[in-house]
Predict the structure of Molybdopterin molybdenumtransferase.
Amino acid sequence: MIPFAEALARIADHVSPLGTETVPLAEASGRRLACDLTARRAAPRAPVSAMDGYAVIEAATQPGRAIAVIGEAVAGRRFEGRVGEGEAVRIFTGAPMPEGSDYVIMQEYATRTGDSVTFAEGYGPAGHVRAMGSDFDAGDVLVPAGTLLNARAMIGAAAADVAEVEVAVRPRVAIIGTGDELAVPGSAHAVRDAIPESVSYGVTALVEEAGGCVVHRAKCPDDLDVLTRAAGEALVCADLVIVTGGASVGDRDFAKPMFKPHGLSVIIPKVAIKPGKPVWLGKARGKIVLGLPGNPTSAMVTGALFLRPIFQALGGANASHRWHSLPLAAPLKATGGRETFVRARFDEGGLVPIGNQDSGAQAALLEADWLIRCPPDQAALAPGSTVTAVSF
């Protein structure tokens, strides 16, 4: 076994980027950005109103004094004249401030009578003006290379005013589930001793969340000849092959042997973590092969811990995790000799370890949205202690 930190380092050393391509911005959601996106202009590109109201010269405006309304400004269409003393321009949120004006009085304080307006006491002190460049300036990096273009990042990409973006080639993924006991969900109840095959569905979701595309899925019995053929088919169509189950050292654990005829070289043999010790990584025919345990919790924990950095490396980004320092809101039991990832939920006051930490648990996975990283032989911790955790 190797330590978890060394396993991440080996991913960085052995997983190479797949290359890049340019796609229309409208098709970029879920892709990994290949280069920095910089703003082509400032935002706002001129001072704009933050409220509906009236643009005036602050120093020349007094409550109760009627002033002339000389025009109107809306978002996308500015008032072309200049505001002088004793004048106002009706203005709407997002509209460029007229020349000469420096202040917006909200419409709630305004009384309009024909072509004049008066303002009630109490309209200050905020001026409700967004300064030019107050959001970002031209040339600012809005979305850095390596970012997975989720909903928030897509806002930044569009704000950069680009029609196309350079993204990493989307990894093609094949998933092979192994095990005589597995049945297609919906049929297991009718087959004695069968259980629904659940892991591949969770792995598929992890792949899609990480920016990959599942192009092939197979469910195979514990038959080495069948599995060897399935491995060959998967290696032809995918950049990354994920095999679930069969990762231990039993007589019917064929996850590694099924790839040996295809030139398997092992990069990570197994990792000193709990759960998920049998997880492994290798290469066959130049493709990456990830072996996940068959137990659902072990598979999801190791999938989260290893698929994210693998996809980052395939996309040309640093293979890493974003660790957080968070408080405990409930006691955390002592851990054993392996680095342990405790499933937890975030509650008021901090992280609460879920009650069922069994590697085969499935219902308990619905509760867990964080993994607490515990070093080997960590003593029990009391509520209020600070722990290191990663989003699950």
Remarks:
- Residues 278 and 362 are 19 Å apart (CA to CA).
